[in-house]
Amino acid sequence: MLALWAVLVAFPIVASRPQRGPYKPDWESLDKRLLPPWYDQAKFGIFVHWGVFAVPGFGSEWFWWHWQGNKDPAYVNFMKKNYPPGFSYADFAPEFKAEFFDPEEWADLFRDSGAKYVVLTTKHHEGFTNWGSPSSWNWNSVDVGPHQDLVGELGDAVRKRGMHYGVYHSLFEWFHPLYLSDKKSGFKTQDFVFSKAMPELYDLVTRYKPDVIWSDGDWEAPDSYWNSTQFLAWLYNESPVKDSVVTNDRWGAGCSCKHGGFYNCADKYSPGQLPSHKWEKCTSVDMLSWGHRRNMKLNQLLDLPSIIQDLVQTVSLGGNYLLNVGPSAEGTLAVAFEERLRGVGAWLDLNGDAIYSSQPWRVQNENVTVPIWYTFKDSNVYAIFFTWPSDNTLQLTTPKVSPSTNVTMLGNPGLLKWTPMGQTGLNVILPFPFLTSQAWTLKLQGVA
Prior knowledge:
The protein has 2 domains: 2-354, TIM Barrel; 365-445, Sandwich (Immunoglobulin-like). The protein starts with a helix and ends with a strand. The strands form 3 sheets. Strands 5-4-3-2-1-7-6 form a 7-stranded parallel β-sheet. Strands 8-9-10-16-12-13 form a 6-stranded antiparallel β-sheet, covered by helices on one side. The protein has a 3-stranded antiparallel β-sheet with strand order 11-15-14, with no helix packed on it. It is an alpha/beta fold. The protein is built from 13 helices and 16 strands. Strand 6, helix 12 (304-316) and strand 7 form a beta-alpha-beta unit.
């Protein structure tokens, strides 16, 4: 109780004092902040959705809401069939034991996937925190369940392997009484914000110094209710990560795809064309859920070719790709998830030069012989294709060739033969079909 009281009295002082630094607590000022370069260079990250929802492991991470919020019959019947009358959602928490959780093993896998950053759910909409949040007494992973600081343990392991570490944090909580009271007032009161949401964000930043703050759960209330601009001004001006942290765009109703750091816009968002602002596509290996499902089927997962194509297309359009896995309540990752991540890593081992630190080219894609997606780095153009031409000849109509043009294939030694198609374009004679690959990359040097 004393710890909670300390948070309640300390936070308003931090939030209301004048901000020191170049950024004012308004969007006009905050939106001028440039993203730290590491984020655009990274291109590929791993998302981890983990919480009490992994215990029922049914439907999705929105289990509690579907069961007791909108009373979905499938969830209601699941509980009636499998749990006794009077069983509450809180009763799941002691079974969230994470007894097989090995942060070193997870971090090894994420590194081997080729990911450059990892984002962990520190708190989803259920309100359970994966660290000992002082404003979440007895509803956190230190007081109940694993009795471990999951956020800190994974963060230490990830950083030891040279990856950046980020925290997902839901602003709202479905059933928190203070939030429901603020909501009933039309968000004219901010009791939940000042006693729960913002103290947790400040605590996460000062305790774990994250490189990414992935905000969510913002859509019901405006950013003025969440006090978002005050927090971001402190984050960018005074926090211990002010020079390295990146944030997304979910800071209040109407902010998405408009304000903040990089844009998510919507889950599994793809713009279809090159946007003018840095963006990120978040998607999940399990196409039906972000969290663990005990009844997951193989045909409900993204296969490896689809993941690699999605990654390539996202990067070609200037985005980052954040691929999600949902661990079990025991702290294990499905073998199918591991297979997908290792497959991405193997592909990036050969083709990473076309992905990491690349930029969108003047043309992002074309489709003549087969669909081709382009990236650009260090005066080199990379052409990535997913289907091997039947006659082993690939037509590229966009590059402007010169006498100094050279063409190679990543992972294959030696120069490839090519002939010009005129002032623009070339025919490339491919060496032989690497039919076991998911996608192939040509490196073009000396093209305009």
